[in-house]
Amino acid sequence: MIPTSELELVEAIKSTSEPVRIVGGGTRQGLGNTVKARESISTSALTGITLLEPAALTLVVRAGTPLADVQKALDLENQQLPFEPMDHRALLGSAGASTIGGVVACNISGPRRISAGACRDSLIGVRFVDGSGNVVKNGGRVMKNVTGYDLVKLMAGSYGTLGVMTELSFKLQPKPAEVATIKIHDVDDVTGVAALSRALGSPNDVTGTALVDGTALIRVEGLPKSVKYRTKALKDIFASQNVSVENDPVKSNGIWAAVGDVSELAGCRGDIWRISVKPTDGPVLVAKLRAAGIDLKVHYDWGGGLIYLRVNDDLNLRDHLAGFAGHATLIRGTGAGAIAMPPQNALVAKLETGLRAKFDPRGILNTGIMG
After folding, report:
1. Could you tell me the CA-to-CA distances from 14 to 1, 18, 77 in Å, in that order?
2. What is the pLDDT of residue 146?
3. For residue 27, which of 106, 117, 110, 89 has the smallest C-alpha distance?
4. What are phi and psi of 206, to 5 degrees?
5. Is residue 284 exposed (0-12), middle (13-18) or buried (19+ Cβ within 10 Å)?
6. Which of 77, 246, 237, 94 is nearest to 178 (CA)?
7. For residue 31, which of 105, 130, 129 has the smallest C-alpha distance?
8. pLDDT the model gives residue 140
């Protein structure tokens, strides 16, 4: 089913008695557990920007609008989505065009999350159809809009289990006038993550920190004089190490697009796991896995707090993570039969069950995707 309006979507949900898969552009269907549904509802026809106010840094857009179209419109105004959403297609081996609704449903956030927050932090309004066919609206077009329960934040990362989003409102930010990337070469995991932490703890307003293939990457953005000053300050901090600077904005942006999309793991065979831990635990965890004889390739983002691992496809990585606080999500592969989403503790599971019973009492929306 491909509704062309919110009214058609309401009728489609009301008329179905079977579980349905909610689909945007289809680029992230590999994320999450297997959905127990034979039919699907696509938002791909619910497209178009309904409001773009550059002076107010505000965007209102229908959920099925391709992300590329949103970014193209914002480029014309020299503005951007603060959370820098990643493109999963190369990593998952998927095709199609990512939609803005899919980005929100999965709360997709890139390297700038450490400074600008996640997708949900830029989302200020949402309109959706719940599992009973009711149209629900929450939030608005300004940050100080207060309308009771914060369903806006709740919908981001709900994977379509609470409702089918039809319209979304975002706060925007201007594109930086200048960007530079400091590279610290030939570092091991411990030294590299320590450097990222030091950069983040400095007063230099860092907007990206990653460790890829033995190189620590640190991004600074802003006005030209400020970027020049902060770049020099960071070079001075790491003067005893092998440091270089990429000042070409096109090349720098390319570096961070590759970081966000986890490009160096995209062509690797095996399973891909996404692990969230406190940054200082990352190198310890990876060292433990290597000591256990696990063949892996690692990618650190968010100062080391976000780790992508490529491992053999006959391994349930969760069996090796005892003693570490955080969670592991299977992004691609079989995980030796592991479920994709991390199991929830009893309290969180109870809250999730209660929310689903409220917004989707028939249990028809993306059933099973989150466990």
Report:
1. 13, 11, 40
2. 47
3. 89
4. -75, 140
5. middle
6. 246
7. 105
8. 64
d(CA 44, CA 2): 7
Alpha helices in the chain (DSSP H): 6-15, 67-76, 89-92, 100-105, 113-116, 119-122, 151-155, 189-201, 224-237, 249-260, 263-266, 281-291, 346-359
* DSSP H helical ranges for 141-223: 151-155, 189-201
> Nearest CA to 130 among 357, 350, 353?
357
Residue bearing tokens 């200020």: 124
How far is it between the farthest Cα atoms of the chain?
67
* Cα distance between residue 344 and residue 319, in whole Å: 16
For 294, the token pair is 């696990």
Beta pairing partners, 218: 182, 209
Query: How far apart (Å, rounded) are the C-alpha atoms in residues 323 and 272?
Result: 21
Give the Cα separation of 247 and 28 in Å (integer).
33
Residues in the chain: 371
Per-residue model confidence (pLDDT) at position 125: 93
Closest among 117, 112, 157, 123 to 260, alpha carbons compared: 112
User: Which domains, ranges and CATH numbers included, belong to the chain?
Assistant: 6-174 (3.30.465.10), 178-260 (3.30.70.2190), 263-337 (3.30.70.1800)
22 is written with which tokens?
């909610």
Separation in Å, CA 87 to CA 124, 163, 368: 22, 23, 24
Consecutive 10-residue averages of pLDDT for the chain (371 residues): 94 92 88 86 95 96 97 97 94 91 95 95 95 87 53 91 95 96 97 97 97 97 97 96 96 97 92 95 95 95 96 91 90 92 86 90 91 72
Name the residue type at position 348: V
pLDDT value at position 233?
Answer: 97
